[in-house]
Amino acid sequence: MTIQAQESARRARQATTRRGRHRAPGSTETFSRGFDALGRLAVSGVQVSARATDLSTGAVLFSVDDHVVMPTASIGKVLLLVEVAARLQSGQLSPLAHLDRDTRDIAGESGIWQHLHVPSLPVADLAALVGATSDNLATNVLLRRVGLEAVSARTESLGLTRTALLDLVRDHRGPDDAPQLSVGSANELTWLFSALARGEIVNPATSQRVISWLSLNSDFSLVSSAFGLDPHSHRHPEHGILLVNKTGTDEGVRSEVGVLRGPRAGVTYAVSTYFDDTSLPERLAVIEGMRAVGLDLLEYVF
Fold first, then answer.
1. CA-to-CA distance for 128 and 144, rounded, in angstroms?
2. What is the pLDDT, as a whole number, of residue 11?
3. Which one of 2.160.10.10, 3.40.50.720, 3.40.50.10420, 3.40.710.10 gives the CATH number of domain 3-301?
4. d(CA 290, CA 70)
């Protein structure tokens, strides 16, 4: 058996035998559906990392290799939003200060600013675009203004050692570029989002700004596809369900972190997968596995 196969088998045993249980008022459930789904992915060679904690108590509801550093694609943009929000709160940046886009900022794929004619936008609007559509062009313009070094310093000040925004967004990554846009561990990502929800990142006002931008997110294609929410209108509870999340998508990468509140409880979760994205069935299997985790989370809070 190869080392890779042995590692896949080990993850599968962990995912299928470590049955994290949780209790919500009046009932007892398991996360067996999500564990089984992640276990099947691990057997097929997908690298999986996941964690969920109760928002009120901090109790770990389930975890699978949650300490492992994984590629997280656009999730690292949250760290940029933290730095921007902190500067707005301190007065170092004005929310109405216009920033111009430049040819060096151009990056395709995610976002809508690349399709608009307006050549400049206020800082607060750019942050909203990043939160709503993970806008790559807006990300690069904000990064050029605040600096990747400042984002890294802020990340370190928060005590994050396995989570980082590594680079600006690029259409093509060369040998001298960071191999990934961002990385993170499920452990640290759940802590970050729990702390944001509690108003503990920098200060309450800064945390609330970041939460407000992230509450615009319109990507419900992964874990959050199980929650039944309107991706374009969900800033107020629907059937008692309220979500703030961020997704990361790249070739072979599917990742999501979020805070889900319901009538019975609240939960913070992070699920990351890294796989050979060589066929549509392989990609769909990963997405379906992440949705299975979402169904368990929904049962916990609803």
1. 17
2. 44
3. 3.40.710.10
4. 15
* Phi, psi angles (nearest 5°) of residue 97: -70, 125
Domain extents for the chain? 3-301
Strand, coil or helix: 178: coil
Residue 255 — φ and ψ, nearest 5°? -145, 145
Q: By the 8 A CB rule, do 272 and 255 touch? A: yes
> What value does the mean pLDDT of the chain take?
90
Residues 182, 249 contacting (CB under 8 angstroms) = no
pTM of the full structure: 0.89
Q: Pick from 213, 189, 192, 242: which is nearest to 73 by CA?
A: 189
Residue 141 CB burial class (10 angstroms; 0-12, 13-18, ≥19): buried
Q: Which amino acid is at 155?
A: T
Tokens of 35: 């564990």
Distance CA 105, CA 107 (A): 6
Cα–Cα distance measured from residue 265 to residue 296, given in angstroms and rounded to the nearest whole number: 13
Residue 257 has phi, psi (to 5 degrees) of: -135, 145
Positions of the chain with pLDDT lower than 70, given as ranges:
1-29
